[in-house]
Each structure stands twice: as structure tokens, then as C-alpha cells.
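Subject: Interface between my chains keeps coming out wrong

I've been trying for a while to get a sensible model of this assembly. When I model each chain on its own everything looks fine, but I need the whole thing in one frame so I can look at the contacts. Pasting all components below, labels as-is. Any help appreciated, I'm running out of ideas.
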Amino acid sequence: MTSSTDAGPGTPAGPAAPRPAAPAPAAPPRGGSLRRQEARAGLLLLSPTLIITLVVVVVPLLWAVMLAFQDARLINIRRTGLFGNYTLENFGYVIAQPGFWSSLVTTLIYTVAGTALSIVIGLVAALALRDRFRGRTLVRASILIPYVAPVVAAAFLWEVMLNPQYGIVNTWLGEPIAFLTQQEGTFLGVRVPVALLTVIAFEAWRYFPFAFLFIMARLQALPPDLEEAAVVDGATPTQRFRYVVLPQLLRVVALLSVLRFVFTFTKFDDVYLLTGGGAGTEVVSVRVFDFLTGRNDIGASAAQALVLAAVLVVFLAVYLKFFAGEKEDRA
Amino acid sequence: MTSATGPAPLSRDRVERGVLRVLRPVVIAVLFAVTAFPFLYMLMLSVRDIQELILDPGSLWPQSFTLSTYADVLGRQGFLTFIRNSAIVAVTSVAVTMLISIPGAYAVARLRFFGRRQVHFLFLAVYLFPAIILAIPLFVLFTMLGLRGSLIGLILVYIAQTVPVTVYMLRNYFESVPPSVEEAASIDGCGRIETIWRVVLPLSKPALMATGLYSFMIAWNEFLFALLFLVEKRDSWTVSLGLSQLAGSIEIPTTVLMAGSVVLTLPIVLIFFASERLLTEGLTVGAEKG
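Reply #2:
Try treating it as a single job with all components included. I did that and got this:
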């Protein structure tokens, strides 16, 4: 455990350490030992990276899995040893807690809608900004700001703008809406989950620049001759998009879907900052946090987090299988 | 084929082009508005008095311009301390991340050793790994070690989260540096570290900027771990944590907190756009030299 504290002050010296070892290959005696020296130097240069990843990511991950099967609370944590006392109690407890299933459903809706919206808006933005126009640099810069800005500032900004008393958005509406604290409302006679939709809108607003960057890079790398040929053949702009551009973007869109799905499914900051998980927006990660800090129940928190990870893995497996199958069909 | 079905698609073509000619500026204007307006509103709100906001919430332009909100947030609310903490955390994270990932990336890009290919998988796993799961054991560990409330623990976590990604980014760039340049250096008698320092790094300035910026942004913007580790100790709050904690209080006027948001947002946006230009310049200069 102390090694993690040592890594902090110790690491600045880390890359300096290989220095004496490195000049050795400059005077190679034989081919075989040169190769061995290269391998040794490679591992040596990579070792700081491996050590910090192991100590701060891999080992804690394994520990989290163990904690999920132990009766661990912050008070008795020193007594829970490495071995023994493994139990499935935490999982039973977590599943039996009120709001378990609804939080899974909320997480899923939030993730699917947030992912889809951010990719669609990112695609539209990339297509709109594809050709040059005056002020394109300015618009591009502006589009990137929501993604670059700190999440705390962005969430606070939305809170203020949507505030029912003095928020500017509500001064434009006839009747003020409590966007972030109202669970349900009626829109054109249909009951809608107001807070959840607001959180999804935030997600789309904040992460469409991410999709925009990926898709824009791909669009600019497309060879122009295919589209020129399509123009000669008399294809209209939508036909060109549907049959020429879109097929070439499918791979990047598929990659974006996976990335955004994974990131959004376990996202904590955005929902926690906007609603604190209230008003029908309680996603699983917020529950994990509440178990951990609110109840100091580490075991339950870890079990809840593992459930989240397991569901994510299942969805990814299904998606990849579905996607790989589709590729085979086309081939 | 064009001549046979010529007239019909052509008219459809004309209609579509017409629609798109109108639609495209509209889309661009909407995108510009929804992204730029909130941040302009943030600026506008940060330079006015709270009374003005409550009396006339719909107004955009401040009637009386004041900077007292900034004085309040920096002094009385302690944002100067938060900025210092954030700066310490971010700068240390960037420095250590670079020191660790430059040799690591070079090793993966150039040197042949066992496990070199498998390393990618580790990096991808860390990149995709949910922070909320990692938060639990690290929270317990830092509680046991008494590291909660200290910036060192936070810096460690940020380094571990960024190093795999920065190694990956740098590796891609190092691979694009022609090996012949390095061979020339080694014939001139440069050792491996000297070759990295004198030849590879000067050629990789844009990539170094990008990776440094990436780790700075992670450290400056991060919220979850700062909340878990530092929340009980106000003197150690980062700017992000400070704003999120003070945003709930009723005593602090919203306009003052908006000044805090500007203080939090502006550095990162300025750094991003300044270095983005540098990045493109660096790349084009390299291209001219061939």
C-alpha cells in the first residue's frame, strides 16, 4: 500500500533512472545481446507507466471486486481481511433496495438517448461545417466550448439559466418550468419526464462536440472523387449523403456509439451536479456514490458498481455480436 | 443513364439544393447560438449586481457594470486558494505525466520487447474504465492512509488516469518520426536518452503540446475524485470542487458564483484555443520542411 504514496514524489526521478542504463546500446558487442539490451531498455522505459497503472488502477480494481463480496463498512474496514468472510449478502441487499430496477432503467434511457442525440447532432454539425464559409473558425471554436469547459461550470450555468425564479430560459416561457426538480410534466397533453429530459439534453449539448470532432476528421479525409462522380451521375445532395458519404462514416459512427455508450453509462458528474439524482434522474453511478459516502457502506457500493459494470459488459457483448454479424452479412 | 432519367432528378436536385441553401445557415446559426450564448450569458451575469438579476431576470446587458463580484469570489469566498490548489494539482500532474509517458511511449514505438503489443490492451482498458468503480477502493485506501484532504493522492489518481492515454497519443506520433533521423544521431554518438531528448522530442513538439494539454484539462476539470478526497478540507478544494460546493449555498449571490464559473472556465478555454492554433501551426511548419 505504501508503494502508492512513494510513487508520487518518486516518479519525477523515474525517467532519470534509465539514463545510466540507456547509453549502453551505443556500443553493441554482438547482435543477440543488442536485442536483449533493447528489450531490457524497453521494459525499463515503460516501467514507470506500468507501475503507476498497476498500483492506482489494476490493484484497486481487484480490491473493489473483493469488497463487493465482503461485509465492508468504513468503520470496520481494517478488520476485513484479504481472506475469508466472503458473502453474497451485498448483492442481495443492493437488489432489494427500493429504486434498484428503476435506476437501471433510468441509466439505460439516459445513456441511449444521450448517446444517440450527441452523435446525431455531431453529425449534423460536421456536415454543416464541412464546406468553408466566412466565420467557420469562430463557429467551430464556439461548438467546442461546451466540451472543453469544466463540467462543474457547465452544470452550474444550466442550473442558473433554467432556474424557475430568475433563470433566463423561464423568462422566455409563458409559465416557468422547474426543469431540474420536476419529475413529470405535460407537454402538448403528453406526460413527459421533465428532469430526465433536461439531463439528456445537457448530455447531448455537452458531448456532441466530441462526435463532431471525430466525424469532421473523417469527413475531411474522404477522397473527393467518389462524390464528384456521384454529382456527374446526377445524384442529389441527399442521395449523395445517403449512398456515398454515410457508408464511409459508418465505422466512425460505430466507434463513437461504443465510446459514448460506455462513458455515459457510468457517468456520474453530470447527473449528480444537475439534479443530485433527484426527480427521476437517479442513475446507477449516483447510487454507488450515495452508498459510499451517504451510508459508508463500502460493500454495498462496490456490489452496486459491479452490477453496473456487468450490465455494461452484457450490452457491449450484445452490441459487438450484433455489429460483427452485420459486417459478415455485408461481406 | 443521366440522359434517360435526366429531367426528374435534376428538378429534385434543384429543390434539395435550394432547401439546403436555406437550411445550412439556419443550422449553423442555431449551433452557434446554443453553444456561444450560455457562455456569453455567464460573462454578462458575472459583472452585474444580484439585485439587477432578481429585478430584471430577462435582461442580457448589465445596466451597471461591476467587478466587485470577482473581488468577492476571489477574496472572501477563497477562490484564490482554490486556484492555487488547482494549479498545483494540474501542473504537477502534467509534469509527472510527461516524464512517465515520454519514455514509455518511446519504448512502445521503437523498442522490441516482450509484451509490447499487449500493452495496448491495458491502455484501452484504462481509457474505457469507469471512474466510479475505481472511486470505491481508492476512497477506502486514502481514508486508511490518511491521504484524504491531501493533494498528493489526487495528483496520483490523475496521473494514473491520463498516463495510458498520453502514452498512446505520443506513441502514434513517435512512430511517424523517421527512424533514419535517430540512426543518424546514434552514429554521431548519441545514447538512447540523448537521442530522445535532442532528436525525437524537438520533432514532436505538437504532440507534446497536445498530450500536455490533455492531462492539464483532466486535472483542472475533474470533479468526482476531488469531491471524494477533498470535500471535508476546504483549504484543499480545487476550483471545480469549490464552485460545486458553494453553488448550493443561499448566502452567496448567483452573480458572484458566476464570476467563479468564469474563473474556472476561462483558463481552460484560453489554453485550449491558444494551443490548438500552435498545434496546427506546428504541423504545417513540419509539412513545409518536408
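Reply #3:
Confirming on my end. Chain A touches chain B through 106 residues (CB under 8 Å).
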